[in-house]
Amino acid sequence: MYLIPDDSINSLEFSFIIDEIKSNCYSENAVHLLENLSFNTNPEFIEYKLAKQVEIKSFLLKGSQFSLRHFYHLELLIKGLETDGYVPVKDELFQLYLFLASYQQLYNQLEKNGDILPLTFNWFSENKFQSKLLNLFLPVFDENGEILDTASTELKNIRKSIKILVKNLNIEFEKALQSGKVNGWLSDEQQSVREGERVIAVQAKFKRKINGIVVSESGSGKTVFIQPLSVLELHNKLSFLKNEEEKEVKKILRDLAKLLSPNTEALNQYQYYAFEFDILHAKAKFALKINANKPQINRKPHFEIYSGRHPVLYIRNLSRNKATIPLDIELNADNRILVISGPNAGGKTICLKTIGLFQLMLQATILIPVENQSSVFLFPKIFTDIGDNQSIENDLSTYSAKLKIVKHLLENASSDTLFLMDEFGSGTEPQTGGLVAEVILDHLLKTKAMGVISTHYSNLKAFAMENDGIVNGAMLFDSKSLKPVYKLQSGQPGSSYTFEMIMNSGFDDEFIDLLKSKLSGQAPSFERILSEISEQKQIQLRMNAELEKKLTDADKLLKKHQSQQVEFLSTKKAYLEKAKIKAERYLENIENEFNKLLKVAVKQKSEGQSNELAKEALAKIKIKSAGIKKEQKPSDLKSIKNQNTEPLKKGDFVKLPDGNEVGIIESINKGIAVLVFDYHRIKISLSKLERTEKPLIRKTASKVIPSIEKAEPFSPILDIRGMRREEALMELEKFINAALLKNFPMLKIIHGKGNGILREAIRLSLRSYSFVKSIENEKDEHGGDGATIFYL
Predict the structure, then answer these.
(1) Which of 121, 603, 680, 682 is the most buried (most CB within 10 A)?
(2) Contact predicate 697/583, CB 8 Å
(3) Model pLDDT for residues 603-626, shown as the tens digit of each residue
(4) Shortest CA distance to 705 belongs to which of 769, 762, 629?
(5) Cα torsion at 479, 480, 483, 489 (round to 10°)?
(6) pLDDT grade, residue 697 (50/70/90)?
(7) C-alpha–C-alpha distance, residues 565 and 409, integer Å
(8) 212 with 219: CB under 8 angstroms?
(9) How do residues 547-588 score in pLDDT, each as one tens digit?
(10) pLDDT band per the 50, 70, 90 thresholds, residue 81
């Protein structure tokens, strides 16, 4: 990336971002890598890096954690393992063991969560962990990093001898000490440690009474420190064994290094992956803190930022419990340059810094705080002029420093260039500075470069209004409270609100009156017009927002109504079609069964009446079948009721007023009819029956046809206790029909416990409906398995 000037990283506060991420790192090497990171403009590389961070961020967002410990930097140790005869330091080798154990734990965790961390695990598994390396350390080290006695047979014997010798040495020392005590030869101190050895503190006048070597004496000369001769001999033997122990430990470490040496390439890879993951993890934690996301990376110069928040400002505002106003901005082929104007301290500089900082963060593969639908182009060349660029070292004024940056920009600007210029054209006499800035802006427009500038110059605002490819933007200002809103509004120039801000700054009335008198004689200034336009624009925007909300709500209601209507008609049609097909199949099966009965009856000549009865039953079935097979629209059903006003008689097809099941009148006696259905007979008053010449389609195994009768009050609870099985199933069908029309999602049937026959019949019937979502027992406190709850 070509970044001008060099200190743009500081002016854009990128170092603050890096410091925040560094605070999340577990390893010193990850911190070092972050301090020396480079920028990249390869879109595929950046998207891949960002996508892994998104995975890790989502994982952390669920409350999960990674175990990242003991990520030591062991480059020198691993390099030493490549040398024959290399004897590593024990502590460094133990650090390698701890590192490998931590790496294995991380690897296993990523593998276990590979379904939600696919990119991260696939990347990690490119260098599969070799658990055999850990096994090489187990016979050598204990959990505290000390060499085990069992690391070799020789070491075990040496340490056993050392323990015995130390025990004997202590015994001999205690003998000499007690002898001195008994004879009164010792000083008040009695014993001490000199040059790492235990010695007896003896009064100087008795020093020849102790058989040993004088190691040292006190400052006064009254006390001498003696090592008994018997102890000295044992100590010499101990020193020899300690030397042998050290030699054996070195041999063990050398042998372990020799076993590890063929795997140095793998060890280097583990180090690389560990530190890279540490950085990814640190970036993901930072993304959580600032609510960052991954925007789309464009391949052509074009970017759209939605709800962008300056990360540094966002973090600072969080600590103050203060909201951060989001930024929405777009630059594209039609509008490549944005001219931002508005009051001082209104947020213009923050807009520029936000855009520039987002570029640096993305090119350093760091997620940015924007909405997901945002998209960004990665500019290889970025020019910034934000803040005071005065240079004492180069003897440059602020304006000279600005001109130097502009010169570089004009020489290098192209379609892949982004420029961010604060207070564009300032630093010199206003009229001249405005004209120079206009010429520069005109040249930049021709280079196809993209950029954002802030200005107070009216001529630049006018230039943006008169030329294609450039657009005005205003930092909004509340003219009532006389305070900036810190929100960018594209498409209009902003006013500096100079007079309004003066009024709000505490000037006395005399000064304000004088200012008004000076301004009253002048023609309305460009700034004054802009101020009025901006105020009217804000009023219009509020009205548009209210109208848009009302239109949106109305549109949602209309779409919901249309959707429900289409869904109802579609569902009703499907119910009818499927019910018709299943009814036809069902009646065909019955007809086949009766044909079989006829054949049997013909053979049984002795039972002449049975043949006639079978024929009569078959005729009734055929009549019913023909009625169903004949196509019938639901809208015709209601009219059938009144087609025939003649009295009901034997053989008529009828139905109950509140049901769909069709029966045949078998007999009539004193106004009471015996009504025959498919599986049962009932007695019922003729006055309660309605004639129907065509049987209504009944429920199929998977659907129920909604009733078209007039809606009546409906309760989502059906009590069928005491009913027979057939009667209960009829009530269930009517109950579901009504529920479908009323759009009740949850229903309850009270059937009682008993022997469970009625409960099983109800639930078996419910399972045959495809639109029954689930079936469950009622809660114990509301009846338990004596009631069934089901959801449509």
Answers:
(1) 121
(2) yes
(3) 554 454 445 555 555 555 555 555
(4) 769
(5) -50
(6) very low
(7) 62
(8) no
(9) 888 888 887 887 777 777 777 777 777 777 777 787 777 777
(10) very high
Distance (Å, rounded) from C-alpha 380 to C-alpha 143?
Answer: 52
Q: Please give the structure tokens belonging to residue 720.
A: 């069928």
SS3 392: coil
By mean pLDDT, which of 447-461, 504-518, 553-567, 597-611 is the weakest? 597-611
- Under a CB-based contact definition with an 8 Å cutoff, are residues 711 and 742 in contact? yes
pLDDT-above-70 percentage for the chain = 83
Q: What is the DSSP letter of 396?
A: B
Provide the CATH topology of domain 2-141+260-292: MutS, DNA mismatch repair protein; Chain A, domain 3 (1.10.1420)
Q: Is the pLDDT of residue 642 over 70?
A: no
Mean pLDDT, all residues of the chain: 82
Among the listed residues 499, 483, 484, 437, the one whose alpha carbon sits nearest the alpha carbon of residue 462: 437
Find where tokens 């000369």 sit: 221
Instruction: Yes or no: say if 326 and 460 are a contact pair by the CB < 8 Å rule.
Output: no
Could you tell me the CA-to-CA distances from 258 to 72, 235, 271, 294 in Å, in that order? 21, 34, 20, 46
Q: Closest by alpha carbon to 199, among 165, 234, 225?
A: 225
- Say if residue 735's pLDDT is above 50: yes
- In angstroms, the CA 699 to CA 707 distance is 11
Alpha helices of 686-774 — where are they, by DSSP H? Answer: 725-742, 757-767
Give the integer Cα–Cα distance in Å for 324 and 309. Answer: 7
Tell me 387's DSSP state: S
Threshold 0.85, pTM exceeds: no
Q: What is the mean pLDDT of residues 500-518?
A: 73
Task: Say how far apart CA 686 and CA 691 lie, in whole Å.
Answer: 10
Tokens in use for 577?
């079609």
**Span 385-426, pLDDT tens digits:** 986 554 434 445 677 878 888 999 999 999 999 999 998 877
The rounded distance, in Å, linking the Cα atoms of 539 and 716 is: 51
Confidence at 150, pLDDT banded by 50, 70, 90:
very high
Range(s) within the chain of domains with CATH label 3.40.50.300? 298-522
For residue 110, give Cα distances in angstroms to 130, 386, 761: 15, 43, 50
Distance CA 39, CA 31 (A): 16
Decide the pairing of beta strands 197-203 and 223-228. antiparallel
Beta bridge partners of 420: 384, 452
Q: Which helix (H) or strand (E) holds 675?
A: strand 672-676
Beta strands in 455-543 (DSSP E): 469-478, 483-490
* Helical axes 348-363 vs 311-319, angle rounded to 10°: 110
Give yes or no for a contact between 448 and 483, defined as CB atoms under 8 angstroms apart. Answer: no
CATH of domain 298-522: 3.40.50.300
Q: Phi, psi (5° rounding) for residue 397?
A: -80, 175
Task: Specify the pairing of strand 653-655 against strand 690-691.
Answer: antiparallel
252: tokens are 């063990």
Rg (CA), the chain: 47
Can you spell out the DSSP letters for 318-376? HHTT-----EEEEE-SSEEEEEEE--TTSSHHHHHHHHHHHHHHHHTT--BSS-TT-EE
Contacts for 710-719 with beta carbons within 8 Å, 24 or more apart? Answer: 711/741, 711/742, 712/658, 712/738, 714/738, 714/739, 714/741, 714/742, 714/744, 716/744, 716/746, 716/747, 716/748, 717/747, 717/748, 717/749, 717/750, 718/747, 718/748, 718/749, 718/750, 719/749, 719/750
What stretch of H or E contains 214? Answer: strand 212-217
Cα separation, 277 vs 105, whole angstroms: 13
